[in-house]
Structures are given as structure tokens and as C-alpha cells.
């Protein structure tokens, strides 16, 4: 069993509603300039309303020139955690880790350990999808009613940091409409999983968060 010790985890604990997100663009000292920083976490109901979609974006603020050479770190595990009984402990996980140009997905399954240490199943249940190259059409894999994607995408998060700074120092009372998109023209590396709600369980609401864990 492969163990992954948590170095930094980001992504807010949240209740699933329609669309939920958490954002964090390289402000944690331990991950600045590294390959494990989570910029955004999204969880929402799919176009197929019987499904949920989980999205983790990492390595933010990539310029177009930097995106072409950016890659997922093979020593970094991305883990979606799902608490379906409201005890604030993960009951299910969906894991993703890259190997040789593919992203391999595990789960959802009940982990043998929770918290800071994770292990990958060794039962051959993983599913691999080719990582989409920058500028190419999305490569989407599917297995057992689930769909999977990994690759670079335009940063979807909108924030006017200049105006935010003016608000903080008292020079402005609110944001402009429209504001200026600080992240325009920058990219992220995205991992997306769409999963049937029937695989998640629970009573209609769940808590969910995402972590990155590095191999030790």
C-alpha cells in the first residue's frame, strides 16, 4: 500500500447545494512555487442531475507560455473527501494521481485510514485517462457511470484584486460592476470527476473537501 503524507491541504469544508467553491491562489508559504497548491475547489450538480461533479484546480497563475510545459507532479496525490453522515470525517474518497501521461483515479471507496495519511488501493480498480495536452480538445474518460478529466484549463475564478485592495484600505466602498478580472489570461491544471449520487450515499447533503498529499 502506498502512503501519502499530507504536506498541505486546501479547499473549504462545505455543504453541497447548487454550486460551492473555495479559492486560494498561492498564499500558503509551504506551497508557493510548488506543484501541490490548490487554487480552487468546486462541487456542483451535474448537467445530468443524478450526478455530482467535483473539480480541483492546482498550480494557478500559469501564463500561456508556462502552461505548455506545466505538468502534474507524480509525487502529488489529489484527494476528494466526502463525509456523508456529518461527523466531519471522510467516509469516502476519490483519489487521482498522475503516471506517465495519464491521471489514474481510485474510488469512490471507504478509506482504511483517514486524516493526514492516505493509501492507494492495490486491487486493480483504478481507471486511467490520458492527460489532455494544452490547446487540445478535452479527453474525457468514463467508467461505471463516472466521467474523468485531467489537464490545463483557463482559470475560472474571478477576482478584482486591485479593487479589493482599495476596499481594504478604505478608498472604496465596494466592487465595481463590471470589475477587472485579475486572473484573465492565466491557467490552472484541473482534475474533474463526475460521479452518480447513488455512489455517494448520505441523506441529501454531504460535506466535501479536497487535499493534496505528497509521497514520502
Secondary structure elements and pairings:
Elements: E1 2-8, E2 14-15, E3 19-23, E4 38-45, E5 51-62, H1 64-67, E6 76-83, E7 92-99, E8 102-109, E9 117-120, E10 127-130, E11 141-143, E12 146-154, H2 161-168, E13 187-196, E14 207-215
Antiparallel strand pairs: 1-9, 1-14, 2-14, 3-4, 4-5, 5-13, 6-7, 6-14, 7-8, 8-10, 11-12, 12-13
Signal peptide: 1-22
InterPro entries: DUF4331 (IPR025566)
Pfam family, one: DUF4331
Description:
Keywords: Signal. InterPro entries: DUF4331. Residues 1-22 form the signal peptide. This protein has 2 helices and 14 strands, in the order βββββαβββββββαββ. It is mainly beta and 216 residues long. The longest helix is centred in the C-terminal third of the chain and has 8 residues, at 161-168. Mean pLDDT is 85; it is low at 1-19. The radius of gyration is 17 Å and the shape is globular. The protein has helices spanning 64-67, 161-168, and strands at residues 2-8, 14-15, 19-23, 38-45, 51-62, 76-83, 92-99, 102-109, 117-120, 127-130, 141-143, 146-154, 187-196, 207-215. The chain has one domain (26-214). β11 and β12 (146-154) form a beta hairpin. The strands form 2 sheets. Strands 1, 2, 6, 7, 8, 9, 10 and 14 form an 8-stranded antiparallel β-sheet that branches. Strands 3-4-5-13-12-11 form a 6-stranded antiparallel β-sheet.
Amino acid at each position: 500500500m502506498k502512503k501519502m503524507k499530507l504536506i498541505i491541504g486546501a479547499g473549504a469544508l462545505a455543504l453541497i447545494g447548487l454550486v460551492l467553491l473555495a479559492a486560494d491562489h498561492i498564499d500558503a508559504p509551504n506551497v508557493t512555487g510548488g506543484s501541490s497548491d490548490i487554487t480552487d475547489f468546486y462541487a456542483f450538480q451535474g448537467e445530468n442531475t443524478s450526478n455530482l461533479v467535483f473539480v480541483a484546480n492546482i498550480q494557478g497563475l500559469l501564463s500561456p507560455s508556462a502552461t505548455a510545459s506545466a505538468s502534474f507532479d507524480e509525487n502529488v496525490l489529489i484527494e476528494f473527501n466526502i463525509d456523508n453522515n456529518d461527523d466531519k470525517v471522510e467516509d469516502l474518497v476519490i483519489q487521482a494521481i498522475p503516471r506517465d501521461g495519464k491521471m489514474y483515479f481510485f474510488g469512490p471507496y471507504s478509506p482504511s485510514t483517514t486524516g493526514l495519511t492516505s493509501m492507494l488501493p492495490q486491487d486493480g480498480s483504478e481507471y486511467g485517462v490520458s492527460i489532455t495536452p494544452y490547446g487540445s480538445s478535452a479527453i474525457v474518460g468514463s467508467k461505471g457511470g463516472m466521467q474523468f478529466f485531467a489537464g490545463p484549463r483557463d482559470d475560472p475564478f474571478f477576482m478584482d484584486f486591485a479593487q479589493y485592495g482599495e476596499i481594504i484600505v478604505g478608498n472604496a466602498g465596494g466592487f465595481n460592476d463590471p470589475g477587472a478580472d485579475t486572473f484573465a489570461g492565466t491557467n490552472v491544471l484541473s482534475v474533474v470527476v463526475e460521479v452518480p449520487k447513488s455512489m455517494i450515499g448520505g441523506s441529501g447533503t454531504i460535506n466535501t473537501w479536497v487535499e493534496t498529499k505528497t509521497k514520502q
